[in-house]
Design a protein that fits this description.
This protein is α+β, with helices and mostly antiparallel strands and 376 residues long. It has 9 helices and 15 strands. The strands form 6 sheets. It has a 4-stranded mixed beta sheet with strand order 10-11-15-14. The structure holds zinc ion (2 copies).
């Protein structure tokens, strides 16, 4: 009774060599005796091996297609099991895919990076400062110096894998010897075992600790600026090198100034009379009190720039500007005498029945925006 090799592998008669190989690999993974020791399955495994031996070889496949059976006497040079004609590497490939990386893995690894956020005031961002910060981190265990072994003891070569970190198992099958490798269960692939772990760190080589660090915050930082402190993160397991610590700046909003880039903006509200007659108003700037000179006839929406009174540029030095925006308050809740005075003023200025001046758009708002864009 002739077997249908195509049916055995579940491929069409015109299947490409690639399709045949794929079908075989899939079945071999499913039916390999190591995976599935059931006798029926093993018979089936033999069948797919036979089928693949024939269909993967162009000559044997042709012979089979013409009605012969290359595996019975007279065909294919009498090859039997154990000297299968197809490459043994096909089977290995089916199981292990790409060659895995060899050798024991190191107990020593780099520590993780850490991040901490700190709040800074606008003045600190403007001129820079230093800060002591506390970080909870992992530091090298002093008891074992990061090695993880109790004092007086050392890690020893694993006797199960002889330090290789992996163990191999040779299985005899009708195909010959099949060797499988897996990480050593005794040492978890490290190649060494620690018979007496350090009691202080439970063998990790590091302990949790709170450290105080002095951080230099340069002038010009802004919310979101990150300062990298190389090697100030957590130390790694097994005494591995420390990761980095990132300090992220969060700027606290200021009572008077709004920051836009390196410029500062604020608004001063003055009565109409002061705007008309002119005045000086004191302003607490980052550099101390300054008299803001309101010129006679100042309009609402005008801005007064104080050059170089803003935030220090983070790169390149120099400073942004401080821009004071003027808002003129119209007097209301007039008593009879005030009303009389303003009426008199209107009469003197010929403004009793003003026609108003109409222009397109929102003049006041527009000029204010323009000022902001021009950095005035
Ligand atoms: Zn320790
Ligand atoms: Zn081992």
């Amino acid at each position: 009774m002739a077997t249908d090799y195509y049916e055995t592998l579940g491929v069409r008669r015109d299947a490409t060599p690639e399709e045949i190989k794929k079908a075989f690999r899939r079945l071999a993974r499913e039916l390999h005796p190591d995976v599935n020791p059931d006798p029926k399955t093993q018979d089936r495994f033999k069948e797919i091996n036979n089928a693949y031996e024939v269909l993967s070889d162009p000559q044997k496949r042709q012979m089979y297609d013409l009605g012969g059976d290359p595996l019975s006497s007279g065909g294919g040079g009498g090859g039997g099991f154990g000297q299968a004609g197809f490459g043994f590497s096909d089977i290995m490939d089916a199981f292990f895919g790409q060659a895995s990386q060899r050798g024991p893995r190191s107990r020593t690894r780099r520590g993780q990076d850490a991040m901490i956020r700190i709040e800074v005031a606008l003045e600190e961002a403007a001129f820079g400062t230093t800060r002591d910060i506390q970080v909870d981190t992992a530091v090298t265990c002093n008891t074992c110096n990061g090695e993880g072994a109790a004092p007086g003891t050392t890690a020893q070569t694993c006797d199960m894998c002889r330090g290789r970190g992996e163990v191999s198992q040779v299985t005899k099958s009708f195909l010959g010897q099949v060797m499988t490798s897996r990480p050593c269960p005794q040492c978890q692939g490290f190649g060494t075992v620690v018979p007496h772990p350090c009691a202080e760190c439970a063998g990790d080589g590091r302990i949790r600790a709170r450290r105080t660090l002095t951080v230099k915050i340069p002038a010009g930082v802004d919310s979101g600026t990150r300062i990298q402190l190389a090697g100030e993160g957590e130390v790694g397991p097994g005494g591995g090198p420390a990761g980095d610590l990132y300090v992220e700046i969060v700027e606290v909003p200021h009572n008077t100034f709004q920051r836009r880039g390196d410029d500062l903006h604020c608004t001063v509200t003055i009565p109409m009379t002061a705007a008309s007659l002119g005045t000086k108003v004191p302003l607490q700037t980052l550099d101390g009190i300054e008299e803001i000179d309101i010129r006679p006839g100042t309009q609402s929406g005008q801005s007064i720039p104080l050059h170089g009174r803003g935030i220090t540029h983070l790169r390149g030095g120099g400073r942004g500007d401080l821009v004071v925006h003027v808002e003129v308050q119209t007097p209301n809740k007039l008593d009879p005498e005030q009303e009389e005075l303003i009426k008199r003023l209107a009469k003197l200025r010929g403004e009793e029945r003003p026609s108003g001046q109409f222009t397109p758009g929102q003049q006041g708002l527009f000029s204010r925006l323009k000022d902001a864009f021009n950095g005035r």
